[in-house]
Amino acid sequence: MTKKNKKSGSSGASAEEHRSDLIDITQKRFRIGDYLAEKIIKGVAFLSITIIILIFIFVFREAFPIFNTSNEVKQPGVEQPKQAAQETYGAVTDSDPKPETQETYGAVTDSANKPETQETYGDVTDKPVVPEKEGLKNAKLESASKTGKSSYTVSAGSGTDDNQSAVKTLLTKDWVPVSEKPRYGILSLIVGTFKITLISMLFAAPLAILAALYTSVFANKRMKEIIKPTIELLAGFPSVVIGFFALMVLATFLQTIFHYDTRLNSFVGGIAMGIAAIPIIFTITEDSLTAVPKSYYEASLALGASKWQTAFFVILPAATPGIFAAILLGIGRVFGETMIALMATGNAALMDLNPFESVRTLAATIGAEMAEVVFGDTHYNVLFLIGSLLFVFTFCINAIAEFYVKGILMKRIQGK
Amino acid sequence: MITKANKNIKGIIIEGVTLISALIIIAILVIMLLVIFIGGKDHLTWEFLTSFPTEGMTKGGIFPAIYGTALLVIIMSIAAVPFGTITAIYLTEYAKENSVIAKTIRFAVRTLAVIPSIIYGLFGLGFFIKFVGAHIDGAFFGGELKWGQPNVLWASLTMSLLTLPVVIVSVEEALRTVPQDLRAASLALGATKWQTIRKVVIPGSLSGIMTGTILAVSRGAGEVAPILFTGAAYYLATLPGLGDQFMVLGYHIYVLTTQSANVDQTLPIQFGTTCVLLLLTFILNMTAVVLRYRIRKKKNR
Predict the structure, then answer these.
(1) How far is CA A168 from CA A154, A171, A182, A240, B38, in A?
(2) For chain A, what is the domain count?
(3) I want to staple A285 with a disulfide (CB 3.0 to 4.6 A). Which of A16, A212, A327, B52 is the partner?
(4) A324-376 pLDDT, tens per residue?
(5) pLDDT-flagged residues of chain A (< 70)
């Protein structure tokens, strides 16, 4: 209604445009273009909020059926009439003509010949049953697709029973998603993720914080102008490149130093992820150190403290909340890092606190297995559940960093 | 006197430790660059860049991957840059600094920036492919599988969500460098708010929009996790269209290093591909850093 009124008003105004221009300067003239532009801008601004809400809804929506143990759960068996229950793992539509795909996962688990992983990926039967496109239509292997990866389907036994028992295994330590009795114990994945996060933080946090301290307190202006952009460049390194570097160079290098057995382990992965987290920690720490008022620095020097005493006992404590936020965001980055985890950690789901053993992180599990699962399967839902866990975790970390820490920092600096 | 000398030595040591930390970080960067560049420089030939992979990926070039990456970042930029710019304009020009709405939007943007990229992949699969795509198929193609499967379009849109905060932050920074006096002058001359934005604010911050676009492109070209299951393909014999899957540099590296049986055979190609990707993102980031540096200088002046 109001829109219509305004429209008619505008046409009326444009009829006597030139006159009103001359006479009435104080009164704002209505312009349809401006009005629309303003509305569009305001609408688009809410896009980022909408996206967050949509991510919430859609990631949780796909994870939800796990907890729904009634008969409505989608059974993979219904959707795949051709290939159901031929063998333990069902049939495989190998859409790629190249021979490499047969051993798709052999290479990944090479370094960590753990029984679980062999069981998971070993028994893929290569059977080009139907031509690519028809196969997709018939079997509705939507998620598997024609990426050239071999796709297998879990045999459809009693869907709901499997589902119920699968949910019960969630809090165990066995992650064996593809077998006759799939077990989805995510505890070992969680432990692995925390282990690797700890290692990477022990490596990255001191390095980045000390470097930030140097840049903001000790360095002269020219040094500052070299260090800051360089570390910004490091932030631009794609994680797949860091993963490649860790896999090819770092793993061998560290093995010759420390002489451990498994070449790809959480130590290598942790260091590589630390490299990815350094720029984040550095930038935020540097910002919060620079935000400490100059008067603190001057007062400390005037009282006879030396430069390093000022740096460590005055400026660093004043910026603690900011540094805390920096580490939190670094943890968030490492926690959700996928490509480095996929490439450099060995990917064996072990419940072990030894840093020189292979680990499998939550994010890597999603990345490695999502392309192979059947849409609507329990495994699919569990992977989305893991995704929801990651999402909630990083969301909380960001919220803490944002509100709690910044609140303290502002109060402290403003002296309230 | 003794205590003072002690203090000095301590000070020098401590300053030295912080300096060394900074140097270690720079050294890591330089080593990574050098190792990958030296490993891949023999492969940086015109032929490698413009030919298809042959003999089961063990020989040949990476042209489809480069083409796919270009396609991805172009569609992604078309989606992300306008929306990012408009959001930034809203935040600087319309929203009041401390209003609840502005705070919420800022929080949302920062959250978008820290959400792990794999979550975007899940979202792309759950929303674009299984929801939007499947509904398009149901409505227009009678349930035939056309858009309800991974392809370039969905992968690019997923990637554009990931790069949206990058654009917003850079553009906002640039918009703030446009002096308030210019806005006031424009308004005083009788221009409306929208005219001021269009004719004064946006032209004044074009370099910032450029920076944001470049950073977004470099981020989008390097990320792999969001497209793992929204469109990336291992091998394609033809160049992809909008509804097809596609090869990407980053995914190519991942597949060659971990998923193929003959890792040693493809080692030169792996280094070559990584080198191309790294040089691409590095040059883009370099440009962005220089542009941003100039913007900040302008602001401080």
Answers:
(1) 18, 7, 11, 35, 51
(2) 3
(3) A212
(4) 989 999 999 998 889 999 888 887 777 777 778 888 889 998 988 887 887 77
(5) 1-29, 68-169, 409-410, 412-416
The identity of residue A387, as a single letter, is: G
Paired with A176 in beta bridges are A183
Task: Identify from B131, B166, B246, B259 which residue to disrupt to test chain A contact, counting A C-beta atoms within 10 A and taking the largest count.
Answer: B259
Q: Which residue of B has its CA nearest to A29?
A: B192
B56 within domain boundaries? yes
- Supply the ipTM of this predicted assembly: 0.90
State residue B283's pLDDT score: 92
Biggest CA–CA distance in chain A, Å, is 89
Distances (CA, A) of B76 to B36, B63, B65, B68, B157: 27, 20, 16, 12, 6
Q: Where are the alpha helices (DSSP H) in B141-266?
A: 152-177, 180-188, 193-196, 202-204, 206-222, 249-254
CATH of the domain at B257: 1.10.3720.10
Question: Does residue A71 form part of some domain?
Answer: no
> Residue A245: which of B7, B36, B112 has the nearest Cβ?
B36
Domain co-membership, A309 together with A197: yes
Check whether residue A329 and residue A285 sit in a common domain: yes
DSSP state of A30: P
**Please, are residues A373 and A380 in contact by the beta-carbon 8 Å criterion?**
yes
Residue A70 lies in a domain: no
Q: Which of B56, B125, B225 shows the shortest C-beta gap to A98?
A: B56
User: What's the pLDDT tens digit per position in B134-187?
Assistant: 888 888 877 777 788 888 999 999 999 999 999 999 999 889 888 889 899 999
The domain of A367 spans 187-414
CB A155 within 8 A of CB A125: no
Instruction: Judge contact between B151 and B242, C-beta under 8 A.
Output: yes
A–B: how many Cβ contacts below 8 A?
A: 318
**Min distance A106 CA to chain B CA atoms (Å):** 7
- B228–A49 CB contact, under 8 Å: no
Which tokens hold the place of A171?
């809090």
For residue B143, how many other CB atoms are within 10 A of its CB? 11
Residue B54 has which token pair?
């042959």
Here the tokens at position A225 are 């102008």
What is the CA angle B179-B181-B185, rounded to 5?
130
